[in-house]
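pinging the channel bc i need a second pair of eyes. not urgent but kinda urgent?? the chain im working w is below, pasted from the shared doc
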Amino acid sequence: AIVERVVELAEQGHSPSEIGLKLRDEGVQGTPVPNVKLATGQKVTEILEDNDADPDLPEDLRNLMERAVRLRDHMDENPGDHQNKRALQNTESKIRRLADYYRGDKIDEEFTYTYENAAELLDDE
């Protein structure tokens, strides 16, 4: 029952961490599931992979890309905001490092981060 609920929540568009929170708070058939791995022997991401419901991008990379797009949009409106310019540089650096880590395994071999790429990928989902 837990596996079916995990797949159902993923199909509704929830990320793996949101699925974990929902199972903890709402549970399955009224019974809270504090730890999916203890209950099923698999992590939420493993369950999603087994059922072909895993997201296109790893969750941490997706969250960083969302942040970078938000910061870039903010910088277009506020070019003098040097603190956020630095935050954008740091975020884009993290994205490039994570992309190197995931390249060929979780993401495409030819993937390179650009603002346009990120905005397009996030609009598709």
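so The mean pLDDT is 91. and Residues 91 and 101 are 15 Å apart (CA to CA). — does that match what u expected or am i reading it wrong
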